[in-house]
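Friendly challenge for the regulars: who can give me the structure tokens for this chain first? No prize, just bragging rights.
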Amino acid sequence: MSNENPQQATDEYLLLIRGTHWNHGMSPAELQKTMTDFYAWADGLSEAGILRGAQPLMEDGKLVSGSKGSTVTDGVFIECKEAIAGYFQLAVGSMDVALDHARACPILEYGAEVEVRPIADLCRPMAEVKKESKTS
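First reply, four minutes later:
Bragging rights claimed.
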């Protein structure tokens, strides 16, 4: 099998909001203004008709691993600045447009990060299977 990724990008992108404690040290007034700006940004995505879904995530969770899920570990065990705090799924058609929307996220100014990922048509293993079946 080739190392080339056979997946195809769809016209949707996931914006993963990273950082769960970006607001530490903010005054209540600063936090209220920032959250008002953040929700206005999110509402703008919805009003533009490109928002397909968005949810905040809890900081705690479970990690399942091992054969048949034999290991379940408490917690995500990742630094709070890297933890995924939530996501936005956008239908925008290009990485450049998705990046423009990510750059407009108001909480970037306070240390949060936005990871932008294209949504694939298939998971990589299935895309590899389909590619190999076409070449055999």
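The chain is about 30% helix and 30% strand. The mean pLDDT is 91. Your move, everyone else.
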